[in-house]
Amino acid sequence: xxxxxxxQVTFDCAEPxxxxxxxxxxxxxxxxxxxxxxxxxxxxxxxxxxxxxxxxACTDPSGAGPRLYFQRVPEGRTVKNRVHLDxxxxxxxxxxxxxxxxxxxxxxxxxxxxTQVQVLYDGHDSCIPMLDVEGNEFCxx
Length: 141
Fold this sequence. Notes:
Elements: E1 8-13, H1 16-27, H2 40-45, E2 55-58, E3 67-72, E4 85-87, H3 95-111, E5 115-116, E6 120-121, E7 126-131, E8 137-140
Parallel strand pairs: 1-3, 4-8
Antiparallel strand pairs: 2-3, 5-7, 6-7, 7-8
């Protein structure tokens, strides 16, 4: 059996480019132009009107993280995500120090359009559930 070498995370969404730009800002990713095109604008100009804006993608410039792929779907989100991303900024921290780092990151992400759902804190561990610009759940952890 061979080992998996790469994977991507796919988001169903209404506005792929908007959601991709949000996650680029969150993770420090970049929106690389599709293969064979100098830019996203050049790629979009080559497509029919109904195909434009149907997908977008971003990648980790270091190559370490997975590619994120965003595809337009006609329906909105109606139930809780079965899978979500954790933005890990508090690894190794505990208590008030961890909570402060998570709250600072949550504030940065709110400025990008995310919504904070709640703060989970038991005096030792903490997590902040949030929603991205289209309401997809993720956690600041």
